[in-house]
Every structure is written in C-alpha cells, then in structure tokens.
Amino acid sequence: MNTLNVDQLQASKRDDPETIVIDIRIRSEFETGHVPGAFNIPAFVRTEEGEVQPVRDPFLRQVTKRFADKNERIYVCCSHGELSMDATRWMVGAGYRNAVNVQGGFTAWEA
What we know:
Layout: E1 2-5, H1 6-15, E2 20-23, H2 27-31, E3 39-40, E4 44-46, E5 52-54, H3 56-66, E6 74-77, H4 83-93, E7 99-103, H5 105-110
Parallel strand pairs: 1-7, 2-3, 2-6, 6-7
Antiparallel strand pairs: 4-5
C-alpha cells in the first residue's frame, strides 16, 4: 500500500490543484475542517454507543460512482491516518492501484 505524509500531499496539491483527496471521516468531523477540495466519503460510522464501525461496501460504491478511473491517484485521509489505512486497502482490493494513504491525516494537515 502506498503511503505519504502531509508535506508530500501539500506539495502535490501545490503542483496540481486538481489532486483528488477523499476524507473518510463522518460528515460532522469533515465539516469542522478538511483538506481544501477534499471529497467526504465516510468509510466508518459511529454507533449510538460511540463505537466506530466500518461501512466498507457503501464506501466502495460511493468511490466507484464518483471516481470511475481506477488508475487515477487518489489520496485517502482521516483524522490521524489510521482508519484511512483500512479504507486505502479496501480501495486497492477493489482495483484502485494508485490509492495512497495520508499519514497523520487531517490532524497533521492542520499542524
């Protein structure tokens, strides 16, 4: 699985403003702040008990619907870069060979 840090993502966005970033956090977290231009496609939900549950199949359906070109480089981030590793693996398993996990996630982006 490909991984990069936020400095590398920032450089990519400087070089190509059309860089694709998927933020997998739940909508309320995304709305508090996100990488400029990021698409919000949640890969996990929070239960009433506060537990985080994966929603792999709905996530992949949304990714496939929005990004048909599976060869395109797509950066995947979350809060800290941990849950996005799972989402990136799911995408690679679905044929997205250039899916890249962003280490440190949005927390590192804000720093």
